[in-house]
Every structure is written in C-alpha cells, then in structure tokens.
Design goal:
Elements lengths: L4 E6 L6 H13 L3 E6 L8 H9 L22 E4 L2 H6 L8 E4 L12 H25 L1
Parallel strand pairs: 1-2, 1-3, 3-4
Length: 139
C-alpha cells in the first residue's frame, strides 16, 4: 500500500484560496492525500468561499483557518502557495517538501454586489480545480 501524500496549501489569511484548495484537493485526491491549509495571518473562512464550494458540492464550512506555525515541525511532500505574498514569506519546511507556487488573485478584494463578489470566488475556485487536476495527473 502506498503512503498518502501530505500536502500543505498556504495563503496569507487562510480564508479563501487555500481553504478552497484544501477542500478541492481532498475531494480530487480521493483519499490519496492528507491535505492541510494555513496562513501567516489566519482569519475566519470567508463565507463566499464556503458558498462557492457548496455550489461545487463541497462543504468547507467546518474547516478552520490555521496559523502556519502549527505545521512547521511537520513533514510534507508538497507545500503549495496560492498567493504571491505566501510564496514570498513561506518558511522552509523540514523533510522532502517540494514547493509549488500558483498565483491566484484575492477574490475577497473584488468589490461590487453579492453576485460580482461570488463570481470572483467561483473563478478562483475553478482555476484552483484546474491546476490541482493537472498537478494530480502529473504525479
């Protein structure tokens, strides 16, 4: 039996991009990976991220925003940063962690009505899903 991959997804606030990535990868990896997410300045999970993922059939409402320090002593196979700030400030992780960086815009930075803001989260969710599918196919 092969061992599960350990993957940490990082973003500054761990409120949207990394949370959606965590939920997506859990589903897409279908038990082949242990998935975590964290941030340098954790905030609560953004309600729009929860809504965008629910529309995709994935419930992330029970996920929490964790601080990156919780994971510094752990070993990961991959550390994926999904925002430029996290990529620049990401600490080194012990062990074999390979770093991957995907730059996604902050969907929470979009202003407008409810529909416009939700659409920005859906765009980022779909972009994350495409990247994660491509990455999993390459393993």
């Amino acid at each position: 039996m092969t061992q599960k991959l350990r993957v940490l997804i990082l973003c500054t606030a761990n409120s949207a991009r990394s949370q959606m990535g965590e939920g997506l990868l859990r589903q897409l990896a279908a038990g082949r990976a242990e998935v975590f997410s964290a941030g340098a300045k954790p905030a609560s999970v953004n309600p729009y991220a929860i809504r965008a993922m629910a529309a995709r059939g994935i419930d992330i409402s029970g996920q929490q925003s964790d601080h990156i320090d919780q994971y510094l002593a752990q070993s990961f196979d991959y550390v994926i940063t999904v925002c430029d700030n996290a990529a620049e400030s990401c600490p080194l992780f012990p062990g074999p962690a390979r770093r991957i960086h995907w730059s996604f815009p902050d969907p929470a930075a979009v202003s407008g009505d409810d529909e416009a803001v939700l659409a920005s989260f859906v765009r980022v969710r779909d972009g994350l899903e495409a990247k994660l599918r491509q990455w999993l196919d390459s393993l």
